[in-house]
Amino acid sequence: MTEITLGKARKLPGQYLIRDGRDFELKSIRPQDHGGFHKKHAEAWIARRRAHLGALQERLAAEHRYSMLVVLQGMDGAGKDSLIQHVMTGMNPQGTKVVSFKQPNNIESAHDYLWRVHMAVPARGQVGVFNRSHYEDVLVARVHADKLDTNGMQGDPNKPEFWDNRLKDIRDFESYLGRQGIHILKVMLHMSPDRQKERLLRRLRRPDKRWKFDESDLTERQFWPAYSKAYEEAIRATATEHAPWLVVPSNRKWYARLVVMEALIARLESLSPEPPPPSPEIMANIDRIEAKLEASQIPD
Fold it and tell me: What distance, in Å, lies between the first and last C-alpha atoms of the chain?
């Protein structure tokens, strides 16, 4: 197995980053890839890099100029929850917000499908994580088009033009966010059907994990080819320089975490966030203020 070095780690995301998806094919990414690394080396590296990721996030918050949005997608069992736990744990919770999009409630359904997404976009200085996202509306909704409530909508969900328009809306929405200083990294955790079966069986057989099992996952497995096609179409239509897709081999969760960690660090480093300078008043009186603080006493 290959040792992990900074140079090798920095090159990892580039193998899976899609900035122009016009010719993308999902089969070009092998779910079983592991980069020639060993699990124990990857886990140790991730632990080391958490401090650097946390420092970058702190500088982003202090600068209060840009925000970062991480979109996580993947089939059930792909490892979205555990990736958030292992990769994002080094960031300050005050500057990090994780949002999970479930089936729309009555209020959300009364608005356009991007309304609730826009409401959850991170503010300046924050890192936002979408655990599932607006892409569910071109993935699950597309696979189960017969169940889509089209009340008031234009177009026919049974025709490709309907989904082409919706993907264009998403691309335009993300372009708009980019012009507002919101930088986007979209991650698809790409695993094989066999690995999903293993993980669902493990979830079912472990009493402490059984609560996560949902029998509907078995039903959705039958639509695997349709989901693969929907993902491929979504990535082709929405991968851009500003909002690229990272299609990560995820048969080995530790490898997916390693790649995403390095991709997120690279994205934040590219923003070169720096804390604002202290005010001239503070700098002009720093000695006096320091002496006053040194001499200060707390009353009994």
Answer: 62
Distance CA 55, CA 51 (A): 6
Distance CA 133, CA 26 (A): 20
Both tokens of 90, joined, read 């080094």
CA-atom Rg of the chain in angstroms: 22
Q: Tell me the pLDDT of the chain (300 aa) as tens digits.
A: 678 999 999 999 999 999 999 999 999 999 999 999 999 999 999 999 999 999 999 999 999 999 999 999 999 999 999 999 999 988 988 899 999 988 888 899 899 999 999 999 999 999 999 999 999 999 999 999 998 988 888 999 999 999 999 999 999 999 999 999 999 999 999 999 999 999 999 988 888 887 888 788 888 899 999 999 999 999 999 999 999 999 999 999 999 999 999 999 999 999 988 877 777 777 777 778 778 778 888 877
Q: Using the CB atoms, write b or e for 69-99: b if 16+ within 10 Å.
A: bbbbbbbbbbbbeebbebbbebbeeebbbbb
- How many residues appear in the chain? 300
How far is Cα 241 from Cα 14, in angstroms, rounded to an integer? 13
Cβ neighbour number for residue 298 with a 10 Å cutoff: 4
Q: Which helix (H) or strand (E) holds 129?
A: strand 127-131
